[in-house]
Amino acid sequence: MKPFLKWAGGKYRLLPHIRRRLPAGRRLIEPFVGSGAVFLNTDYPEYILADINADVISLYQVLQEYGNEFIAYCKSMFIPENNTPERYYVLRAEFNDTDDRLHRAALFVYLNRHGYNGLCRYNRNGRFNVPFGRYQKPYFPEQEMQYFAQKATRATFVCDDFRNVMARAVPGDVMYCDPPYVPLSRTANFRSYAANGFTWEEQEDLARLAKELSQKGIPVLISNHATEFTLAAYAAAQQERIEVRRVISCDGANRATATEVLALFCDLAGYTQLDR
């Protein structure tokens, strides 16, 4: 099942590779859940799903709590009258100003499907600032939301720093980490990368914690760009490199391949991998 949110860097297309690498376990922990593609397409008894984006986690919690009632509320916003630039910017302002948890969550779904390229972006003041997307008829993901709500009965949603989330792991857990990817060049894009809130030091922390958890019998799978930095940082892991097609221009017409790495920190003795 595809996620109901459009999401930059979503892992739906990489699922066969990820699932082949993920060991079985009692509970899957995702410190960077994003759109939830891995959650939706694995079958662990329990999940801890975390993200630092409070709007994403609040949305998932509201959907988990209210189910079909909330889905119907979201659907009421997907009408032709709301698919204009003028109405989009009115609703975007409502999203930024409202304190109503349910209304803000529904508006997040609306903005995700009506905004440009499904981006999730905030200015320095924390206000959502993605422009109107100009889609002829934005798709309302009703079935995808229903599936998510049904499966969310197994999940605990957490808004927290990845280090705190990783500290929750105990033997029997499995962890999948999909952090903000490192730039393909360590010098290129450094300022914009650091400004997005995930630094080189945090990448190093992630690799260190993954190694420490694996030594405690907790397997950790990380996805990232395959660069000199990540291949060195993940030296203690079993690595698989994958060529992935990527959009490299704003109009989506130009695509190129980038090499990604799946790094599994795990002594596989005593573990079985998912075969689904």
UniProtKB/TrEMBL annotation:
<dbReference type="InterPro" id="IPR023095">
    <property type="entry name" value="Ade_MeTrfase_dom_2"/>
</dbReference>
<dbReference type="GO" id="GO:0006298">
    <property type="term" value="P:mismatch repair"/>
</dbReference>
<dbReference type="GO" id="GO:0043565">
    <property type="term" value="F:sequence-specific DNA binding"/>
</dbReference>
<dbReference type="GO" id="GO:0009007">
    <property type="term" value="F:site-specific DNA-methyltransferase (adenine-specific) activity"/>
</dbReference>
<keyword id="KW-0808">Transferase</keyword>
<keyword id="KW-0949">S-adenosyl-L-methionine</keyword>
<feature type="binding site">
    <location>
        <position position="178"/>
    </location>
    <ligand>
        <name>S-adenosyl-L-methionine</name>
    </ligand>
</feature>
<feature type="binding site">
    <location>
        <position position="51"/>
    </location>
    <ligand>
        <name>S-adenosyl-L-methionine</name>
    </ligand>
</feature>
<dbReference type="GO" id="GO:0009307">
    <property type="term" value="P:DNA restriction-modification system"/>
</dbReference>
<dbReference type="InterPro" id="IPR002052">
    <property type="entry name" value="DNA_methylase_N6_adenine_CS"/>
</dbReference>
<dbReference type="InterPro" id="IPR029063">
    <property type="entry name" value="SAM-dependent_MTases_sf"/>
</dbReference>
<dbReference type="InterPro" id="IPR012327">
    <property type="entry name" value="MeTrfase_D12"/>
</dbReference>
<dbReference type="Pfam" id="PF02086">
    <property type="entry name" value="MethyltransfD12"/>
</dbReference>
<dbReference type="InterPro" id="IPR012263">
    <property type="entry name" value="M_m6A_EcoRV"/>
</dbReference>
<feature type="binding site">
    <location>
        <position position="11"/>
    </location>
    <ligand>
        <name>S-adenosyl-L-methionine</name>
    </ligand>
</feature>
<dbReference type="GO" id="GO:1904047">
    <property type="term" value="F:S-adenosyl-L-methionine binding"/>
</dbReference>
<feature type="binding site">
    <location>
        <position position="7"/>
    </location>
    <ligand>
        <name>S-adenosyl-L-methionine</name>
    </ligand>
</feature>
<protein>
    <recommendedName>
        <fullName>Site-specific DNA-methyltransferase (adenine-specific)</fullName>
        <ecNumber>2.1.1.72</ecNumber>
    </recommendedName>
</protein>
<comment type="similarity">
    <text>Belongs to the N(4)/N(6)-methyltransferase family.</text>
</comment>
<dbReference type="GO" id="GO:0032259">
    <property type="term" value="P:methylation"/>
</dbReference>
<keyword id="KW-0489">Methyltransferase</keyword>
